[in-house]
Amino acid sequence: MHAQLTELAELVGGKLVGDDQTINKVDTLQNACSGAISFLSNTKYRKYLTDTHASAVILHNSLLDECPVSSIVVDNPYLAFARISSHLNQKPAALPGIHPSAIIDPDAKISSSAWVGPGTVIEKNVVIGAGCFIGPCCIVQEHARVGDNSRLVANVVLCAYVEIGQRCIFHPGVVIGADGFGIANDQGVWVKVPQIGTVVIGDDVEIGANTTVDRGALENTVLGNGVKLDNQIQIGHNVCIGEHTVVVAGTGVAGSVKIGKHCAVGGGVGIAGHLEITDHVQLTGMSMVTKSILKPGIYSSGMTVAPNIEWKKNHVWLKRLGDTNKKIRDLQKQVRELMKPDE
């Protein structure tokens, strides 16, 4: 798809500076050529701006004087780039229909405008909304519901009674509604606890490849509107994630955690069970959360990488912290004794 710069500037509420041109693709500052539009939001890439061959660049007003080509000036270049890229790379609407190799229960209700791909299984009493794309080799179990214009890319499993909102995107390998990890100990023998809740997912949720969201044990696991989950994330049973929260790859969220709205959870984070994280919390990558967080802000744990020899030295000191702390307490006690007035 192509568009004029004037059209793109209007799309993102930006100001066009320079000549109007036809744009047919997006690209990086260093690799772009004529007909491409790029963006600059991270100052690490500022060095590529003056030599770019892009036809236009999306940037902040503070960098306008350094740009040698036409510009779209906005307050948030990355957001504007996302919207322009989406506009230029719109996926063609899938033709409605059902592939001959799909297996469809006669009691399933599938919109006439939906597409069901090859090898897909749709069980009884499933509801598939208008404009949905159910890709190849998906499994949608009984009584599951998929909202209008949602997209299951391929090999997605929706277990029984799962409810999906509108305009959701689930990438390959996503599993929604498998049993949560519920077990009780009977004198050393583990006994399964039935998982009788389900998963309820709001509108405009996107879930990355091979991410799993477990069904609730009693109550439901819930993802609010606009939640974005990256690849290879584990969401445990009865977890509730508030609207417009993002979670990055490799994170594990244990059962019955409540995460608020507009949170950002970095990659590889671990969150222990039965905790509460309030709205507007950011957890940096590889953090380990073992207590509830009830105040908005940025939280971190763990140690950043260091040269191996430096890390070994620091590790030695870490092992000595207990003894060092005891010695300090003993010294403090001795000082207090010495400072007591003579009787």
Topology:
Elements: E1 3-4, H1 5-12, E2 15-17, E3 22-23, E4 25-26, E5 36-39, E6 56-59, E7 70-73, H2 77-88, E8 97-98, E9 103-104, E10 109-110, E11 115-116, E12 121-122, E13 127-128, E14 133-134, E15 139-140, E16 145-146, E17 151-152, E18 157-158, E19 163-164, E20 169-170, E21 175-178, E22 183-186, E23 189-192, E24 199-201, E25 206-207, E26 212-214, E27 221-223, E28 228-229, E29 234-235, E30 240-241, E31 246-247, E32 252-253, E33 258-259, E34 264-265, E35 270-271, E36 276-277, E37 281-283, E38 288-289, E39 297-299, H3 308-319, H4 321-339
Parallel strand pairs: 4-5, 5-6, 6-7, 8-11, 9-12, 10-13, 11-14, 12-15, 13-16, 14-17, 15-18, 16-19, 17-20, 18-21, 19-24, 20-25, 21-26, 24-27, 25-28, 26-29, 27-30, 28-31, 29-32, 30-33, 31-34, 32-35, 33-36, 34-37, 35-38, 37-39
Antiparallel strand pairs: 1-3, 2-7, 22-23
